[in-house]
Write a structure and sequence with these properties.
- InterPro entries: NAD(P)-bd_dom_sf, Sc_DH/Rdtase_CS, SDR_fam.
- By secondary structure, the protein is of the alpha/beta class.
- The chain has one domain: NAD(P)-binding Rossmann-like Domain (Rossmann fold).
- It has seven helices and seven strands; from the N terminus they run E-H-E-H-E-H-E-H-E-H-E-H-H-E.
- The chain has a seven-stranded parallel sheet, with helices on both faces.
- Strand 5, helix 5 and strand 6 form a beta-alpha-beta unit.
- Helix 1 crosses helix 7, helix 3 packs parallel to helix 4 and helix 4 packs parallel to helix 5.
- The protein is globular, with a radius of gyration of 18 Å.
């Protein structure tokens, strides 16, 4: 059974999508959450929803930050620790999708941005959080992607997620037995990533038919895995790369 009552959790990238769903779920399970994102209005709405769902009516710590800046990463952790004085769970969810293909103009600048947010910010937060998580025998959950396991169009994004998976394994060994470190690797998940498409619902419906389970993941599907990995229900797991992808990795590309 997943029990997060009175656990303190820092959840990055929590103004929307998987991060928002995770913050709401953790709050409903009694956790004290710190939420982080770039959009203050969205953060305020998530904070209000978290408080409403909390059985204890806990108000989240809210930090507006852009992890492209290392100082924002550090400030995020400092504000969380200042408010709660302790930390039980770190969910590294903030991520940036690549937009430039290999050899396109500004591809290297795109690569640098993706690496900063998807990898370096995670390393920095882990470095800051580790001493405190050791004291609480806490857990880290990194939100990676199936793109870290198999290549897709955007090479720099795939590289960043493959790096994140290896970092998960390295830190699992480094921080054991005090801190458990696992990764969840989603496949296609409903999010604002598709909002620029003229008809996102039609696109997602079409993509769903290409998946073995004939569906696209909802953010709560991934949040449920994160909550499990963060809880004592997963006390026997560390260094695991947990795929939740509606069967995307086993899809037969030649099937008709």
């Amino acid at each position: 059974m997943v029990d997060l009552n009175n656990k303190v959790a820092l959840i990055t990238g929590s103004s929307d999508g998987i991060g928002k769903a995770t913050a709401l779920l953790f709050s409903s399970l009694g956790a004290k959450v710190a939420i982080v994102g770039r959009d203050q209005s969205k953060l305020d709405k998530v904070a209000a929803e978290c408080e409403a769902k909390s059985p204890h009516h806990y108000k989240p710590v809210v930090t507006k930050a852009d992890f492209i800046r290392d100082e924002d990463v550090i400030r995020t952790f400092e504000e969380t620790l200042s408010a709660y004085k302790t930390l039980d769970i770190l969910v590294n969810n903030a991520g940036l999708a690549a937009t430039k293909g290999f050899g396109e103009p500004d591809a290297m600048a795109d690569y640098d941005r993706v690496q900063q947010i998807n990898v370096k910010a995670v390393v920095r937060l882990t470095e800051l959080a580790a001493p405190h998580l050791k004291q609480t025998k806490g857990a880290i959950v990194n939100v990676s992607s199936v793109a870290g396991i198999r290549p897709v169009t955007y090479w720099s994004y795939c590289m960043s997620k493959a790096s994140l998976d290896m970092f998960t394994k390295c830190m699992a060994g480094k921080l054991a037995p005090h801190v458990r470190v696992n990764s969840v690797n989603p496949g296609l998940t409903r999010s604002n990533f598709f909002s620029s498409h003229p008809d996102p619902d039609a696109l997602l419906s079409a993509l769903a038919q290409e998946q073995p389970l004939k569906r696209i993941a909802e953010p709560i599907d991934i949040a449920n895995v994160i909550a499990f990995l963060a809880s004592d229900a997963a006390r026997n797991m560390t260094g695991s790369i947990v795929v939740s992808d509606t069967g995307e990795l086993i899809a037969d590309p030649y099937a008709k």
